[in-house]
Known about the structure:
Blueprint: E1 2-9, H1 20-24, E2 32-36, E3 39-48, E4 52-60, H2 63-68, H3 93-102, H4 104-108, E5 122-132, H5 139-144, E6 150-157, E7 167-179, H6 181-196, H7 205-215, H8 225-232, H9 237-250, H10 265-279, E8 284-288, H11 294-300, E9 307-312, H12 315-325, H13 332-337, E10 338-342, E11 357-361, H14 372-383, E12 387-393, H15 420-434, E13 436-443, E14 454-461, H16 462-465
Parallel strand pairs: 8-9, 8-11, 9-10, 11-12
Antiparallel strand pairs: 1-4, 1-5, 2-3, 3-4, 5-7, 6-7, 12-14, 13-14
Helix pairs in contact: 3-6, 6-8, 7-9
Amino acid sequence: xxxxxxxxxxxxxxxxxxxxxxxxxxxxxxxxxxxxxxxxxxxxxxxxxxxxxxxxxxxxxxxxxxxxxxxxxxxxxxxxxxxxxxxxxxxxxxxxxxxxxxxxxxxxxxxxxxxxxxxxxxxxxxxxxxxxxxxxxxxxxxxxxxxxxxxxxxxxxxxxxxxxxxxxxxxxxxxxxxxxxxxxxxxxxxxxxxxxxxxxxxxxxxxxxxxxxxxxxxxxxxxxxxxxxxxxxxxxxxxxxxxxxxxxxxxxxxxxxxxxxxxxxxxxxxxxxxxxxxxxxxxxxxxxxxxxxxxxxxxxxxxxxxxxxxxxxxxxxxxxxxxxxxxxxxxxxxxxxxxxxxxxxxxxxxxxxxxxxxxxxxxxxxxxxxxxxxxxxxxxxxxxxxxxxxxxxxxxxxxxxxxxxxxxxxxxxxxxxxxxxxxxxxxxxxxxxxxxxxxxxxxxxxxxxxxxxxxxxxxxxxxxxx
Length: 466
């Protein structure tokens, strides 16, 4: 069995360590078991007090299922590799997958009931008793150190009874640092497979998307960026090259300048939206202003979303979305799940009625303020979904972008940008007119005075929430 523990300790900025349970969406008084594609994960809390809280995950990998898998890849792929390997005992890409599945809500860094908590940097300690370090015992420090972790990697002997055999390729790994929980989990998700240099599943374009989404904020500036990308993508050169190109593209702001802050904000925004949809049990989604389909492809990769519609006013953007999604090559079953439509958020469209949720991600600020009432009627009265998610820039945060001139917007096509007070006032008008309840959260690095760069409103139809 593979063991992973995460401990949070109380500080002045985080006075109650047991709040770790809120962040992970796992109650400290319960033992929970999760059936995963890689095996069975059991989550429990060995300790939970105000001063210190530890969550443990035990991953039980089924060696029979592992041997049957046709997607085994990596350096242990010798003749008997599928029968004789370290997968049931040591950390690997399987552990990374288990962490992402079991703690998926914490990855997005949102918590509706206590919005400030996911944005708080916590004193954390991560332990993995047996972790491959293919490349030497100094490799964990080279990978995690630049991200702000103190790294203890103690080599494990090949055989404790025969010391002259020396050390094995495994270490007992401990990471200590002050991080937001979301950042810590993302670091683990990306770098554990890199340490192992083995992936237990097929690596394709979806993995390249995940790497950009999970590490886009820090990968381009990491001293081991080339090694990380190469190992994470199973040494597939074409995928590594595509990631490098996209990191350069994503590091450019909407104004065309490289920012000093929030280089991966677009990825964090998308993750927060998708995690909220999953938490609310949404199955049928309309993405209004879908653009070239970046979020559509991520929604399509998740079976929980049974019907996905992308909407945009731009025909050229929709054509690019079709190519990104590979609609022509999808199976009939997949093709039934997703479609793209040319339409506008400010006009009623009967094709968009009857869905569980409507997403307006960075859309409202592109609409003339005089047309906002029409958008509200179209979405909240005509489409009338159970859930509406709206994200928009926080205008107060703009002063932190060094290349943004005072008084200008983040994008030349923005018609306005809300402050937090203005956004909440607009949302209050919507809820009073259309019987929705609303909650707010920030996305991105939070400034103590100015808030987060992106603000998100979650509207839930009142009769449903009641």
